[in-house]
């Protein structure tokens, strides 16, 4: 096998491996003194055979310049008057001989790496080439004797922008084509004057491997015999202005480890073991099932671990804490680790930092076998400007919008996708399908949806133009999101999509075919992050308890709109970085009060309508902000650390919250229906108390009471339904085992016939300070 050098240096053609002497010294191809159009003769089994003229001057020039759109029409073997013409383009070769059965024909050297010959044969034979370089000979297949590897259906779907398994058509695929093993390459580059394949297999010189353009699709294709999995490659594109650029494959399914940038030919041989999980994944819709999500940044959860090493630790940890799902911050390849994966260059490749694609499949498989669903952050809003990736891929705006104002993302210095171009929509829709079908991902959390939906997002007047109706909505992005959601839900049973959408856009989780008051169909997401609840509740919690009465509405306002969408309550990575402080550090008071506030807040959050998401490290009250450089402060849990019990207590609470939550359908069965919630008291601002009922479909209740004041409230009366004979405390965030003061209600609490809060009966509870209490019918 030829050496596979990295292409991370300034010239991707450089290599440390040896190549034939002529190539190693970069000498010009051997030229002949004969005219390129002169005839010559060669001997075949003792007979004299006329040799065809070389390719005409125009073909020669275009092939040498890398601007030929159909090299197969010139190179290879072709029936012509008088027999079969063989033409070969092999820069640096000294001689080329055609081998066809018993036939051996030495071709004429036409100069500049071109060789040709005319053989008096009736039909074009299957043939190989014997290529002589200085000091060596290689017997190889002729890449230009093969028919295209893409069929009419593929080309039709590509042209329509409707190829839902685009990754099976484009990219690099080891395969057997016409009985020969090799790799088929295909790339969309409609503005290119020519495209060539360069890689370790040709010493990063693509001169001799030009691709052919397939009709009007803008797709270029080439089958290279003998190239297999593991080879590095890029596409050498000749731009409209004649300049050249080396580009990573947009559909590459594997990449080099950053900062190296080459694509890697990949063939998966992974055997899945999660059949049972997939068989039952669609048993219940996500919004009617328990969902408690642990958000993870894989490279820093346990720094230094690979996908397979993570698979030995992460599933056990998450299962022990009782979360139903993990959400992985972006896994797709990205050049800058400090972007946390949100500036993607390899949309179809799991990051090589932690292993190869089959290693990532192993991690997902192990999570599924542990009973844990896998959500993944997906970033279709924008991409970075790296000159080896998608930006002006073929010399002109292609994946980005052609209007510079529409293309430039104002916040991140990146480029926005052109959602109005069918091929770009196809690239992204198929990418969503790809992760769910090929990697068994259970759902996609779509990043930065708001920045996609509005033409004026982070733009000043004069920096944007209204849509055709005079509005600020990005109609192309709306259509793309609708298509993505509809396609994904149709193709992948049990999948869920989640929108990170921070505005009041109407119908984010409404079906795409149901038109709302704004005149738009729904976007079709399954769930939406409740950013309003997050900001309001964290603001409330940040105040000293004595001031909370003035902010009481921040804890109740979410119920005004709680059923307008299907919500997730996110305490995500975004809330514990860049000076925002960790969750426990946002809380006022001393260390005891900070932990008590966090525990009370988590108890309130888990009882509130909506699914829960908690970022790693917050489950054990990490005091420091998260950093991708070192991840969670696991040492806080070390028994040798004096305060470890404080941190273990918060983690024990999270475990019990999840355990009780999953066992209590009232907390999730009717998350998206008003009949699943009822206020007991929502206006006790002076007391800093909130109390409400969560109700199962059959009316079975859970009573949640939060006291956000630092005082014990004894005999606190709350109205309750009179049909419940007694209430039993099932969770109290002030319990001693969590690090609290152990102010609990140990005995069943029986209702009194005294009406209260508009209900026929009432109970008297002892409310611990800075705590949340859950009670169920005894």
UniProtKB/TrEMBL annotation:
Record keywords: Carbohydrate metabolism, Glycogen biosynthesis, Glycogen metabolism, Glycosyltransferase, Transferase
Pathway given in the UniProt record: Glycan biosynthesis; glycogen biosynthesis
EC numbers: 2.4.1.18
Pfam family, one: Alpha-amylase
Classification via Gene3D superfamilies: Glycosidases, Golgi alpha-mannosidase II, Immunoglobulins
Catalysis performed (reactions): Transfers a segment of a (1->4)-alpha-D-glucan chain to a primary hydroxy group in a similar glucan chain
Catalytic residues in the record: 447 (nucleophile), 500 (proton donor)
Family designation: Belongs to the glycosyl hydrolase 13 family. GlgB subfamily.
NCBIfam families given in the database record: branching_enzym (TIGR01515), PRK05402.1 (NF003811), PRK12313.1 (NF008967)
Full protein name: 1,4-alpha-glucan branching enzyme GlgB
Upper lineage: Bacteria, Bacillati, Actinomycetota, Actinomycetes, Kitasatosporales
């Amino acid at each position: 096998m030829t050496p596979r050098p990295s292409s991370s240096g300034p010239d991707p053609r450089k290599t440390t491996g040896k190549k034939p002497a002529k190539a190693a010294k970069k000498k010009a191809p051997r030229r002949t003194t004969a005219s390129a159009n002169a005839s010559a003769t060669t001997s075949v089994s003792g007979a004299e055979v006329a040799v065809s003229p070389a390719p005409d001057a125009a073909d020669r020039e275009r092939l040498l310049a890398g601007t030929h759109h159909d090299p197969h029409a010139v190179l290879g073997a072709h029936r012509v008057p008088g027999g079969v013409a063989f033409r070969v383009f092999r820069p640096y070769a000294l001689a080329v001989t055609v081998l066809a059965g018993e036939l051996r024909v030495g071709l004429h050297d036409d100069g500049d790496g071109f060789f040709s010959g005319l053989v008096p044969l009736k039909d074009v034979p299957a043939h190989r080439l014997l290529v002589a370089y200085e000091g060596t000979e290689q017997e190889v297949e002729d890449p230009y004797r093969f028919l295209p590897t893409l069929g009419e259906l593929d080309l039709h779907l590509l042209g329509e922008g409707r190829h839902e398994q685009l990754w099976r058509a484009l990219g690099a695929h080891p395969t057997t084509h016409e009985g020969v093993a090799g790799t088929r390459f295909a790339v969309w580059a409609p503005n290119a004057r020519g495209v060539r394949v360069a890689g370790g297999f040709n010493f990063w010189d693509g001169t001799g491997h030009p691709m052919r353009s397939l009709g009007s699709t803008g797709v270029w294709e080439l089958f290279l015999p003998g190239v297999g999995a593991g080879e590095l490659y890029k596409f050498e594109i000749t731009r409209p202005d004649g300049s050249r650029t080396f580009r990573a494959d947009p559909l590459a399914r594997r990449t080099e480890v950053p900062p190296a940038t080459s694509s890697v030919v990949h063939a998966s041989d992974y055997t899945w073991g999660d059949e049972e999980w997939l068989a039952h994944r669609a048993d219940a819709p996500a919004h009617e099932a328990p969902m408690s999500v642990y958000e993870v940044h894989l490279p820093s959860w346990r720094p230094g671990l690979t996908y397979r090493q993570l698979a030995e630790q992460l599933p056990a940890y998450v299962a022990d804490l009782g979360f139903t799902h993990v959400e992985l911050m972006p896994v797709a390849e990205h050049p800058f680790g400090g972007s946390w994966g949100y500036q993607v260059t390899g949309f179809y490749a799991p990051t090589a930092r932690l292993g190869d694609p089959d290693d990532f499949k192993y991690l997902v498989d192990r999570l599924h076998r542990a009973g844990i669903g896998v959500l993944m952050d997906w970033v279709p809003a924008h991409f970075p400007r790296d000159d080896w990736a998608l930006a002006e891929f073929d010399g002109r705006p292609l994946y980005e919008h052609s209007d510079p104002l529409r293309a430039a993302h104002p916040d991140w210095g990146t480029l926005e996708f052109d959602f109005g171009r069918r091929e770009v929509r196809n690239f992204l829709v198929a990418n969503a399908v790809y992760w769910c079908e090929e990697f068994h991902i259970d759902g996609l959390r779509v990043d930065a949806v708001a920045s996609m939906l509005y033409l004026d997002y982070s733009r000043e007047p004069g920096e944007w133009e209204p849509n055709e109706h005079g509005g600020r909505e990005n109609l192309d992005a709306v259509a793309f999101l609708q298509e993505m959601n509809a396609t994904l839900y149709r193709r992948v049973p049990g999948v869920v999509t989640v929108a990170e959408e921070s505005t009041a856009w109407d119908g984010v989780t409404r079906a795409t075919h149901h038109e709302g008051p704004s005149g738009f169909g729904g976007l079709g997401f399954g769930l939406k992050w409740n950013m309003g609840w997050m900001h309001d509740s964290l603001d409330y919690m940040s105040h000293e308890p004595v001031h909370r009465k003035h902010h009481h509405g921040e804890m109740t306002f979410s119920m005004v709109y709680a059923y307008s969408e299907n919500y997730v309550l996110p305490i995500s990575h975004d809330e514990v970085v860049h000076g925002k402080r960790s969750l426990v550090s946002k809380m006022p008071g001393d260390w005891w009060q900070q932990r008590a506030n966090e525990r009370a807040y988590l108890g309130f959050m888990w009882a509130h309508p909506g699914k829960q998401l908690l970022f790693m490290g917050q489950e054990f009250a990490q005091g420091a902000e998260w950093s991708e450089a070192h991840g969670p402060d696991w040492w806080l849990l070390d028994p040798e650390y004096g305060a470890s019990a404080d941190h273990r207590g918060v983690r024990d609470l999270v475990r019990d919250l999840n355990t009780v939550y999953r066992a209590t359908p009232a907390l999730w069965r009717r998350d998206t229906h008003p009949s699943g919630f009822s206020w007991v008291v929502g206006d006790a601002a002076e007391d800093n108390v909130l109390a409400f009922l969560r109700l199962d479909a059959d009316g079975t209740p859970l009573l949640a009471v939060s006291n956000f004041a630092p005082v014990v409230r004894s005999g606190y009366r709350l109205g309750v339904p009179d049909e419940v004979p007694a209430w039993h405390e099932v969770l109290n965030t002030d319990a001693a085992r969590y690090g609290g003061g152990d102010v609990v209600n140990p005995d069943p609490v029986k209702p009194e016939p005294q009406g209260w809060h508009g209900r026929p009966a009432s109970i008297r509870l002892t409310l611990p300070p800075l705590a949340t209490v859950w009670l169920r019918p005894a």
